[in-house]
Design brief:
The structure holds two protein chains of two kinds.
Chain A: E1 4-9, H1 15-27, E2 32-35, H2 44-54, E3 59-62, H3 72-85, E4 90-94, H4 99-104, H5 112-127, E5 132-135, E6 140-144, E7 156-160, H6 163-172, E8 175-178, H7 183-199, E9 208-217, H8 221-238, H9 241-246, H10 251-262, H11 266-271, H12 275-281, E10 283-285, H13 287-300, E11 304-311, H14 315-326
Parallel strand pairs in A: 1-2, 1-11, 2-3, 3-4, 4-7, 7-8, 8-9, 9-10, 9-11
Antiparallel strand pairs in A: 5-6
Chain B: H1 7-20, H2 29-41, H3 47-71, H4 75-84
Helix pairs in contact in B: 1-3, 2-3, 3-4
The chains are: A alpha/beta, B mainly alpha.
Chain lengths: 332, 95
């Protein structure tokens, strides 16, 4: 079975740049395209709609949305409408959301596992055309039904990092987006997902297990590292001490980076990123280096690899490199 | 002005200039949509596609456009762009 390749775009760029990259990614053999959802950037569904118009084959999804910012009924409505625009090539990507982001807009994040599970249940019922009356721990819906028909069962991918979410993702997801780049983290995630798959009585092939990585490729390793460092700085600053220590990173160093980021001193923060941090939280380097790391992940059991932000120092060049040098290595 | 054998590489270079440009707000959305349609349909290296790309590239980053054309030995076109930069934009004669 060939490894599927996905790519992530952040709509801090205008729709036309993302659509242009999407066209290029499609022509380079990518299977999936994921758009991040953050209130500070452009809207995920409008961006996906623009991409849908200018592409033909690539599968489109939210990478990832959350249960809190938009009611699950509206999430189902948006994805269902998108499936009219790009029939058969839309998926929902949903995760627990980011506390810092939700705090910023005054949305309380409670019971993340229940919220994700209930959102998926409501999404599936609504997109199946049911009249939904739902009494959950988090969501209560008195009676909702669409006035339009969604023609197929739309796959749901669950964004997950912690053990409980990973296991639940294996149980109820059609796919799982593992938020990790290092083989040891992905190995742990795959084992946990497989537990969930087993508990649900499903086959491993029923779930598209996806490594959703921070990725940076360039023929010049210095350029690849330079592009990866800012993203890794944010990941390090947001990682719990246990995760940092697991990778041999001193939490005090992470605190320094976090403090510099909060103070707006990006130069200092990026300058404090070490090679160990890059290795732990990204896949970064020349095409051959990236191929070696992706091959490790494939051996562990992933079925899709996502090249997430930053993708490369020059995104256009990186897409061409992935298409010409990396994807062909994983065709069989 | 651009020999047919150079249409494809010029098109690729201009797309690179446009995507690398920092002043996104200068891109008119009708022109952006036209370029996207050419890219989708595989006509970005046609005469019409190149004209749209040239217009956008000059608008977003004239210096890099001239440099990119220079790299492809398209010096006459680069000179023409420099000439036209300040007086009314490009015409179909450019391609």
């Amino acid at each position: 079975m060939p490894l599927k390749f996905g790519i992530e775009f952040v709509p801090k760029e205008p729709y036309w740049k993302i659509a242009a990259y999407a066209i290029q990614a499609e022509k380079n053999g990518f299977n999936n395209l994921w758009i991040t959802d953050h209130f500070g950037n452009r809207n995920v569904y409008v961006t996906l709609a623009a991409v849908a118009v200018y592409t033909n084959k690539i599968t489109l999804g939210t990478g990832v949305t959350n249960p809190w910012m938009v009611n699950p009924v509206i999430t189902a409505q948006a994805i269902g409408t998108l499936d009219e625009l790009a029939p058969g090539r839309v998926v929902l990507g949903i995760g627990a959301g980011d506390k810092t982001t939700l705090d910023a807009v005054g949305v309380e994040m409670g019971k993340p596992l229940a919220a994700v599970k209930e959102t998926i249940e409501i999404f599936r019922k609504m997109t199946a055309g049911e009249s939904v009356a739902y009494q959950g721990e988090v969501f209560k819906i008195a009676g909702a039904k669409f006035n339009f028909t969604i023609k197929r069962k739309i796959p749901v991918y669950v964004g997950a990092q912690g053990p409980k979410m990973l296991e639940m993702a294996g149980k109820i997801g059609d796919g799982v987006l593992i938020n990790a780049s290092h083989p040891s983290d992905v190995e742990y995630a795959v084992k946990t997902i497989n537990e969930g798959i087993k508990q649900a009585g499903k086959k491993p092939s029923d779930v598209d297990i996806t490594a959703y990585t921070s990725f940076s490729v360039n023929e010049d390793i210095k350029k690849a590292l330079k592009a990866a460092s800012p993203v890794v700085a944010f990941i390090v600053a947001g990682s719990p001490a246990a995760v940092l220590e697991k990778h041999g990173i001193n939490p005090a160093k992470a605190n320094e980076i976090g403090t510099a980021l909060k103070a707006g001193d990006f130069g200092k923060a990026i300058g404090a990123v070490t090679p160990e941090m890059i290795d732990a939280f990204s896949i970064c380097g020349t095409p051959d280096m990236c191929i070696a790391r992706i091959a490790e992940l494939r051996k562990i059991g992933i079925s899709q690899f996502v090249a997430g932000s930053p993708v490369g120092a020059n995104v256009k060049v990186a897409i061409d490199l992935i298409g010409s040098k990396i994807i062909p290595q994983f065709k069989d | 002005m651009i020999p047919a054998e150079k249409w494809a590489p010029v098109s690729e270079q201009l797309i690179g200039v446009i995507l690398g440009a920092k002043n996104d707000e200068k891109m008119p959305n009708a022109l952006a949509n036209m370029i996207l349609l050419h890219m989708k349909n595989g006509t970005a290296s046609s005469k019409a596609g190149l004209l749209a790309l040239l217009e956008a590239a000059v608008l977003l980053d004239a210096e890099k456009t001239v440099a990119a054309l220079g790299e492809l030995q398209m010096l006459k076109l680069a000179e023409k762009i420099v000439q036209q930069m300040y007086d009314g934009g490009l015409t179909k004669n450019a391609t």
